Amino acid sequence: MLLVKNVRLVNEKELVDILIKGGLYNRIESNIELKGQYEVIDAEGALISPTFVNPHMHFDKVYTALQGRESKKETLEESIKIMHDLKKNYTVEDVKNRAVRAIKECIAYGTTKIRTNVDIDNIVGLTGLKGVMAASEECSDICDIEIVAFPQEGIFNNEGTEKLLWEAMELGSDVMGGMPAAEWTEEYSKKHVDLVFEIAKHYDVDIDMHMDQTKDNLARSLEYTAMRSIEENYQGRVTGGHCTSIAYQNDAHAEKVMKLLKLADFNVCTNPQVLAIMGIDSEPRTRGVTRIREMVNHGINVATAQDTICDGFHIFGTGDPLDYGLLCSYVAQYNTPGSVKIVYDMITQNAARIMKITDYGIKIGNTADFNIIDASNIQEALRLRPSRKYVVKAGDIIAKSTKKTTFV
Fold first, then answer.
1. Lowest-pLDDT range, 46-55, 65-74, 94-103, 195-204?
2. Are residues 247 and 281 located together in one domain of the fold?
3. Rounded to an integer, what distance in angstroms lies between the CA atom of residue 182 and that of residue 193?
4. Statement: the pTM of the whole predicted model exceeds 0.85
5. I want to staple 385 with a disulfide (CB 3.0 to 4.6 A). Which of 300, 322, 338, 403 is the partner?
């Protein structure tokens, strides 16, 4: 048993005690008194949060920027070319080692549920997938990982990728990915989406595609995919990552698309740090994110995620949800004590909904996956990004950290 004393629930004023028994939340009340032997955490008024959930990562690419990243144009297209060159040299062991490092760093920041894309194409074959699967297996006791078979380079314009995707699913990929914008024409983008649904339905898995992640105001894969979700009875099982093009479309069209997304129970994952790779515009510069506020107001499930850590696309990134949550707050202009909960939901319960985590949250009977954060409320958590004093998975403490400054 584990007893957490003097802890503050999100958006609650009074401190409570929480008893964890058999890896589940057993009691949540004031001043729990027990007899016998049990482990105790005195939170001393700190915040308790359900474990963070990151629904959009690329573990096969992490830390490749440390291997050399020369950039001249600083555009998305150039970043893709940089990764072409880097992943030619992947080995299973190299991918595994980098992925394990990233997984453990994410866990240190309180994230124990992660969905990662892995490139499947004729450049890297299945090497990245095998490396990430090995990393996932090594870390399986401390992190729950879903793997997306992701055709970064397209399918029909990348010979052999269709066959590789079927093989990736046979090897045990959990989710079917896609990137229709990688195809040369709109016709083939639609064929790309159709094939993704065909494979996903064959294996009865969810779909998570990079959708319209450009500044092209004529991109239409998002609404086509939402409509296919309805036609294939896949409502609630499809997630679109980025979905940036809708931000550049006129309001009337965007409104129509957002209504369709809501009808399809479509999930959207915005990744605000990609504003660093949207190209060097003249002023005013583009932000590279979707219509976050409008989608939230339409009742669409919107999450936010780390996306990349120190790779050919993005040389920064820590894996800390409080970092990218704060960035999302700035980019979407959520700047009041009341609206901060909207962003906090994006890194917790909204992201958990994407990954179909059914027993998520601090509630009696649910699995006890949580963080003790050295802050008094979620506003201060995002502002300060303080230490995760304790990271707990299924009632077991798996990580501890402190940040202390000594003045001399």
1. 65-74
2. yes
3. 11
4. yes
5. 322
